[in-house]
Amino acid sequence: MNWGAFEGLLSGVNKYSTAFGRIWLSVVFIFRLLVYLVAAEKVWSDDHKDFDCNTLQPGCTNVCFDHFFPVSHIRLWALQLILVTCPSLLVIMHVAYREAREQRLRETKGDNYRCLYPDPGKKRGGLWWTYLLSLIFKAGVDVVFLYIFFRFYKNYTLPRRVKCELPPCPNVVDCFISRPTEKNIFTVFMVVTTCICVVLNLIEATYLVGKRCHECQQAGGGDSRR
């Protein structure tokens, strides 16, 4: 996948994000995407090749590897990064829709038309809901993947040795995982950064709702005074 083009698309999100959203985007790119591209992919590149079992029985090593690694960390992280950043693209698409609608009105009615969106990127109306729902979805995706990792890899750690007795293994065999300590360090790092992203999304959602409630209270207070 062309992650450079992916990053270029998401760079436009900064224009429509709050301060918390910009921090979230920085954490995703610097501490998740770059770590994934530069280091994590290489660490897991030899996971199947160097998964050794003390048996010569054909098929035993493959069956044991499939049992203990039902889905690779790398593929799960790639899917997680794609899903967690797609809602930000929806915000850009919503702003582009507003700008295109404004342009069509300008071309149809001339310069004296009634402006629908004085600032298409301002989070009001439908765009506010799109932005808020995108934050909830991103936090939900990260929480779901944290649960998936926990279920597949207990406590997010890999043991140095695992025992396997699945057919066609002739008996209980010992299997050894390649570089388990290094993989555990990267796994814990990715889990921590994911938790930080969840907290940032929830803080930003709370900020948006609180700001909107404050504006509504001010508007109501102004109407009552009049």
TrEMBL record:
Residues 141-208 form the Connexin cysteine-rich domain. GO terms for biological process: cell-cell signaling. It is found in: Cell junction, Gap junction; Cell membrane. It comes from the Eukaryota. Residues 42-75 form the Connexin N-terminal domain. Keywords: Cell junction, Cell membrane, Gap junction, Membrane, Transmembrane, Transmembrane helix. Signal peptide: none annotated. One of its GO terms (molecular function) is gap junction channel activity. This is Gap junction protein.
